[in-house]
Structures are given as C-alpha cells and as structure tokens.
Structures
1.
Amino acid sequence: MDKIQIFDTTLRDGEQAPGASMTVEQKIEFALQLERLGVDVIEAGFPVSSPHQFKACKIIADNVKNSVVAGLARAVEKDIDAVYESLKGAETSRLHTFIATSPIHMKYKLKMEPETVIENAVKAVSYARNKFDQIEFSPEDGTRSELEFLYRIIEKVIDAGATVINIPDTVGYTMPDEIFDFISSIRNNVPNIDKAIISTHCHNDLGLAVANSISAIKAGARQAEVTINGIGERAGNGALEELVMALNVRKDITNIDTNIDTKQLYYTSKLLSAIIASPIPRNKPIVGANAFSHESGIHQHGMISNRETYEIMTPESVGRDSSEIILGRHSGLHGFSNRVKELGFNLTDEQIKTAFEDFLKLADRKKEVFDEDILSIAGSILGKDSCFYDLDYFHITSGNAAIPTGTVRIKYDEQQKEEAATGDGPISAIFQAIDKATNIPAKLEEFNVSAITAGKQALGEVSVIININGEHYGGNGSSTDILEASARAYVNAINRYKLTTELTGDNNES
Ligand code: KIV
Ligand code: ZN
C-alpha cells in the first residue's frame, strides 16, 4: 500500500478565511494538536506578512518536533529570508514558495512576461537551496496554467533544488477527471519529475476539493494539502478529515494510507471550532453533529440489527466516543488541571487558575461537566491573553410589555466603562450597549446558538460574526445563560478585530 503525506495548511490558507484569525498562543496550541494528529507537514504561516505571523511561525518551529514545519513565501528574497529566520529552530524546515503561472494571473496580477516568471521562480529556489531541508514550489493558479509552460517551469525549479511540486487549484475550477489528466501529463512530460514529490492543493468553490484531491492522488500525487474543517479562502480548502476518511474507508479502491491517527480527528475539529469561534455545520461529514445520527425508523431498525446497514465507518474510528461525565463541582484544581492536560492543552498556572474559576462557575450551575465543556473553557482561555475588552458585568431587563434594555460594564486597559442601550430584543440591547462602551460600531451578520452538551443544564455556545469596516470577525462565548454567552461572543469578536488590526497589521497577499 502506498502512503501519501498530509500537509495541513489550516494555520496559513485556513487562517485566511474571514473571521478565522488566531492568536499566537492559539496557533501553537493547535499546531501541537496537528502534530498529535500525525500530519506530515504543518504550514505555520506567512512570516513576512506581519510580526504576528513571524512570531507564530517561530514558536511553532521551535516546539513541533514530529512534523515538518513549512512557511510560505512569494518568490522574492525578502519573503524567503523571513521564512528562514522564523524556521531556524525547526527539526525539519520547508520553504513553500509560489508564483502565479496562469496567463490571467501573469498578465493582470503580476504584470510579468512568462519568461520573467520562470526567471524569478528559479532565482527564488536557487537562493533558498541551502537554507532549508526541503523546498516546495507552487505555480499559483496551476490548474488554469498552460501545460507546456508548466512543464518548463517545473523542470527548471526541480533543477534549481525544489523537492516538492504543488499544483494548486487556486480558484476551485477543476473537475476530477481533468485534474487526473493534468497531473498525469505533468508526470509524463517533465523529464526530472521523479526527483520531486507531486502535491495537490484544491479549493472548494464548486464543492469538489476532496474529490479533486483524490483524483490527483490516483494520478500520482503523493502529498495532499488540506485544512481541518475545510476552512480557507472563500469556500475553503479540501477538508483533511474528509480526505483522510475517504482514503481510509475506501482503501479497497485507493490502496492509499496516511500517517493520520483518525481517532484524533473529531477532537481536532472541535478544538479548531472553539478557537476560531466557528460552529461546525450539523451535516458536515465526519465531524458534524448529524454525521452518525440515524433519524428514520427504518434506519434505526437496520442499525439495531447490524450497524453496517447504515454506517460505513464507526464513530469511534474518528474519535467520537460518547461523552463521559468526568468532573463535578467537587472536583479539585488538581483533577481539573489533569483533565485539561489530557485533552491536549498546555496552559500556564495562571491560565489554569482562571480556567478553574470558570469551571467552578459552570459546575455550580450544571451538575455534570463533559469533555466538550472543558474544551470550550480551555479554548476561550487561550484567547484571553489578547483580550483588550473584558465583559465585567451585564444586566438585562426584558418582557413582553417592557422595552428591552441592556447595561454592561466593560473593562479596558485598567479602565472601565458602563453603558446602557435599548433594542428590539434583549440581545440587540446588550450588543448596542457593548458598541457604546467599546466605541466600536459593529454590524452583526451571523448569530448561532448551540448546546455544547446535552441536557437542560447544557452549556450553550453562541457564535457571532460581526462586520467592522467591511471586514468580518468571529467570536464565541459559552455559558449556561444564553444572554451571557451572547454578550461574551460579541466582546470576543470585537477583541479579534482589535487583535487583527492593532497588533498584527496583517497583509496576506497569497
Ligand atoms: O491556493 C493557492 O494557490 C495557494 C498557494 C499559495 C499555494 O494557497
Ligand atoms: Zn490555497
């Protein structure tokens, strides 16, 4: 059986999704989980784009030991130097450099002649040759590039030192049969292609990213670039969990294996969802709430007789064991902090103390605390260090014969501000009070409530997407009180805006 390498780009392409920016601390926590998941390569970021990106790449490179750590660079020395400086501490480092090769990108985006594009690509790879353990080259918008041109540029960058050739379907345009032929043609027409691994990187604009990745693999690609939950630019990238399980469940056809520990898939997906405040759609394959639930009587009857009547894989195989009750209000700090560690979080003593206070508050209101609750608490603690605004107090009056009014006290930089506002309902009143207290007028675009665990006392999770100056920021909050969860989610989204704009000055151009 052949093995393919899984290259995870959640922290780079994934983070380019609207509202998916992460703090440095969240990124390192997530990278360590990707390492436990068994991904072969972690693309840590685009270091030249901001000091924040640089710092995250460096910390990931210094801490991840079992996965290759990659950094993205345009085909220019300044970008390559930034990747080099940030990945110096990596056990195995990889430069991922790219330049657009499709006629439309060369003419209108790069404004470069095709020959100059080849020159720049070769110059970049030659410059990087002795600086990294591995060099990956991507002809951006590859699937809309002319094959003859690709053969030439690929041959030249391999001669210059590229060890991986990634063919991006940048705009999610290709079809499964087409990418099969495309990759086959590259294999058959680039004379030195045996000196490099071919990789596939599919976007999901037509919902074909995973199908296209599988076709590319069938044609000989031996690396697939994907993201957890399929997050990424526009409609996203191919979802790692879907690709891995498709290859796994249909080994009879694909004869392909990966190094992924599939039992870590569900947890990894939940962790990402908690970190970026983006709920997983219920019907999402592998990780959605409905993926293993059987509603109709006929299906349930079949399942009782034999699970395989309606299940092609077990929930356990992707780490979806039923939630165990693990802690209650009498659990001490020690038991709590052990469980947080077992779930994969490395919190400082100070963070554990804060998380424990949140846990006690929750345990007071809710008798049974599940792993999902702990995940939610620990996930939000990780974002707290970059907290600009803190919701200190809130109060709401509402009723069918009263004007809903919200009052909040927000702490910011050792100061605090109290504001009140009325609204159409209690949630709009509280959000408007927060707008006044922070002096940041945000427009609410999405609002979702879900129960993290079952039962009347369930911890409710609210996630919001707000629009500030045309940019989108996600936030989440959890509490047994939905109004409190809503207020926390809104403040969390505003903090994400502050983090992105004030701290980072991000400038992702890829
Ligand atoms: O989609 C794309 O083309 C990319 C490249 C930078 C590989 O993400
Ligand atoms: Zn991409």
2.
Amino acid sequence: MSANAKTVANPHVPVQDEASYAAYVEDFRRAAHQAVDWAANYLMSARQYPVVSQNQPGDLIDALPPSAPDAAQPYDEILRDFQKTIMPAVTHWNHPRFFAYFATSSPAPSILAEMLSATLNTNGLHWKTSPAVAELEKVTLAWLRQWVGLPENWFGIIYDTASVSSLHAIAAAREMVDPEAHTRGTRGDLVLYASDQSHSSIDKAAITLGIGQANIRKIPSDSNFRLIPTELEKAIKQDIAAGKRPFCLVATVGTTSSTSIDPVSAMADIAERYNVWLHVDTAYAGPAAILPECRYLMDGVDRAHSLVLNPHKWMFVTVDLSVLYTSRPDILRQAFSLVPEYLRTAEHPRAINLMDYGVPLGRRFRPLKLWFVMRYFGREGIQRMLRAHIQWAQEFAAMVERDSRFERVAPAPFSVVCFRYKGSDDDNRRLVERVNESGKAYISHTVLNGKVVLRMAIGNIGTTREDVQAAWELIQQAAPANV
Ligand code: PLP
C-alpha cells in the first residue's frame, strides 16, 4: 500500500460508521441513475456504433494503467473511462445488424433483473441461504417446461452455459452406466456418440470427465446434416464387439453450423436398445418449441434422459442462463451430491438444495431474469419475436436464391440461413471480412460439406426486416460481380 493511501481519507469506504455507509449508498444512487440513463440511451442508439470493435488486439490493455489505483476514484471518472476506453473495445451484440454466431441482445427486463439480482447478491448454496433462488428456479423452470412441452415430471436446473449443462448430463450418463467410475475413475472403456455436427462442448465434456477423446465417436450425418441412425447403431455394435461400453448418445436439435435436427426418436430407440443415456442438445433451437408450429422439434424428446436449452441464446434473456432438464434427477444427484458437515442443513421434503445437482456450490440468482422476461413479454410476446425471426430468415433465404452468384447450402428451419458465394473458399472468407470490416453488419462462417459457408443468424431483439434487407444488400455489394 502506498503512503498516499495511508494518509488520505478514503471518501468511498463505507465501513467506518453509519454516516459514511449512507454517503456511499447515496453516491451509488446518483451514479446508478446516470448509468440507467446511459443504458437506455445505448439501447436506443446501439446501431450507431460499428458492430464489430475496430480495436486491434492489445489496444485496450495498452490504454489501461498496468496497476490498480491506491486512492479512491469517483464514479464520474470511472464511467467516463468506461465510455472513452472500454466502449471502443466492445463488439455490439446489441447492434440490430449483429447476425453472427447465434445473435443475442440485452432485453430490457433481463437487464433490470440482473441489476436487482446483483443488488441482492444472494447466493443459493442450499435452500436456507436463499429460498428465493431455489424456489424461483423451480417455478420458472416448470413454466418453461410447460411452454416447450416437456414432460411434467422432468427436473430442471440452471447452470451458466450449455457447455456446463451438457457436462453435467454426460456425468450423469457415466453414473448410470458405470456407477463405480464415481470412486475408481473411468477405465477407458466408455464410449460417447454424437454426430459430426455436434457442438465442441460435447467433446470438451467427455475430455473433462476422463472419457478420452479416442472414445468419442463422430457419427456421419446425411445431406441435411442429420445424424444417420444406421451409422450410429453400426458404431455401437462395433464398439461392443471390441469390448467397449457405449454409455451416452447426444442428439442435437439445432446444430451450431446449420441448425439441422437429429432424428431424436430413432436415437431414442437405439438408446433404449443398448441401455445408454440420451442427451439432447437444443441449446439454440429449444425455445422455438414455444411455437406450436415448431413443437415437432421436441418429437421423441420425452424418451431422452436429459435436454439442454439456453434462454440466453434465443429466448431474450441476457447471457448467462442455460437450463438442463432431466428425467433422472436421482442419477444426477447421485453423481454430484457430496455434502460436507459445514453445509449440512435440516432435511425438509420441500427444501431443494441445488448444490446436490452439480459442480457449482455458489449459485447466482439467475431465475430472476427468466421470471422478469417470461412475465414482461408473456408467451405471446416471445412467440411474436420468434416468428418474426423465422419469417425474416425465410425471406433472406429467398433473396439468396434470387441472386445467381449465391447458393443455399442447408435447410433453414429456424432463424439461421447458410449460404455461399459460388466461388472459392477464399472468396467466401474475403466476403465475410469485407462485410465485417465495414462495421455495418456482422456475419460469421462455418464449414459444411468441406466448403466455407456464410451464416446469417437472426435473433437480436432490435433487428427489423429492414436490417435483414440491408445486410443482404451489403453482402451482395461485397461479393464479386461475376463468379
Ligand atoms: N450446443 C450448441 C448446439 C451450440 O450451438 C452452442 C453454442 O453455440 C453450445 C452448445 C454451447 O453453448 P454455451 O456457449 O452456452 O456453452
């Protein structure tokens, strides 16, 4: 600590007496009003920023002091630096022309709930440390379960990301098939199956759980990027013949690259035949099941053991909030319940301890933002937004089809369109760069059938039909005139 810090009274330290605490809270009140005004102005004007940060790598690090201050600094100065120094390093997911990855934004009710949740800072270690966390999680996940049509008796739990939700599902799968692994560790004979289109989080989960990358089978997908069930069964039979133990199948409904839909019912048949766990990754597409016309995406899911769905992707909740549902909470609990003496509490049939169902002990008050969002928009409001995004994706796909320089490369059942300029991979890469460097829109790419493909993902709450049209015009202008 510097001499400066010892000798100068710190006007922000609230612990000295009640008056200083009150001054500290009043200082917050004033700055928070300012911050809320800033936030509302930002939401109104996000489209005025370049979508992608124009910073070079390291710019922000160079712009900030190498060590933290000794002396207190006023909110005004911190907020000024936030705008001057931090904001240029921000890529604006709130920009209505953010069409990359799975586009998401900051819905206002979710921002509000985040502020209240941070204010309470209540930590749901177990029921008693925050009944609100445990019980609002239970209530909102029951509401959501009804909205997407999952079985009434499925248990839901919130984690931060789909990667972590799937990690827990795969741990439960291991617990079901090889319960001894809990104490002795894995023997290297468990095998997991997912399509060659599945998300990398599945591989990471298997690596983390000691399954080993060599025991992940990537099952080929068909021309519409859906896992081929006969290939799956063939691989399972080969593994069994080789003395391996199949333990988990992962179906993806809404794959990351093309939003394709694996045949869940056929995979459920196979899972039942070989007594393995079936996990369904609907991280992005799951919320679409709120629409009656998209409910088909849950076909066969009632026969799965678990499902992940991310309200922070396409259900208008701020990052992070991922939900894992399971028909076998008993096995999930068996995999993770480990209660040291200092966390023991009196048992009560209605007091749920969420720490028993996963790795994290501390638990943010995430259900509050789900509760705000579900109530503020209502099912009808969310349906309207989902339908608009799906409709505009269809319109975008039609525009692509009308330009002979481009081709569609995958069905577009949701709000993502995969297409390519009919030139080389380099031409397509350059096209993405040109669009993104313009600062006027942001799209991303993937590889399908060995070729670089462009992805247009609609999901931002501020996006309009005109934004989609403008993005297409930008892409057309950035493409060479002749193939
Ligand atoms: N599963 C699918 C199908 C995804 O598309 C993604 C991310 O895009 C994930 C899982 C991982 O999501 P998260 O970032 O919440 O871990």
